[in-house]
Amino acid sequence: MIISVKTTGLLGKFLPEGSERNRGDVELPDNSSVRTLLDQLAIPDGRCLVTINGALLQKQEFSTTIISPSDAVVLMAPLAAG
Predict the structure, then answer these.
(1) Is residue 82 part of a domain?
(2) Contact residues for 48 (Cβ-Cβ < 8 A; gap 6+)
(3) 81: in domain
(4) 74 pLDDT higher than 70
(5) Which of 20, 22, 66, 81, CA to CA, is 20 to 30 A from 10?
(6) 46 within domain boundaries
């Protein structure tokens, strides 16, 4: 399946080659989890927040949340204040 992924901040560098403006299409096996997506994109653990259809996922949900091609997936760089 192919899913569309939007990123914020510097996470766009993890999208496949040819992606533009922090948006890209990622090919995944059917019934893939968010964890599968993050592993395929080689995003280091803890380096992003994930929303699916506007709902923020908790880190422990990454392995159990299955992505479908119609889902709106956004990977966001965590914010830091200082």
Answers:
(1) no
(2) 7, 11, 38, 75, 76, 77, 78
(3) no
(4) yes
(5) 66
(6) yes
- Is-contact 48 38, C-beta < 8 A? yes
CATH classification of the domain holding 24: 3.10.20.30
Total number of domains constituting the chain: 1
Structure tokens at 70: 């119609």
Neighbouring CB atoms inside 10 A of 32's CB total: 19
* Residue 56 backbone phi and psi in degrees, to 5: -75, 130
Residue 44 confidence (pLDDT): 86
Domain membership of residue 8 as a residue range: 2-76
Res 46: pLDDT: 78
In which order are the strands placed within the sheet that holds 73-76?
Answer: 23-27, 2-7, 73-76, 49-52, 55-56
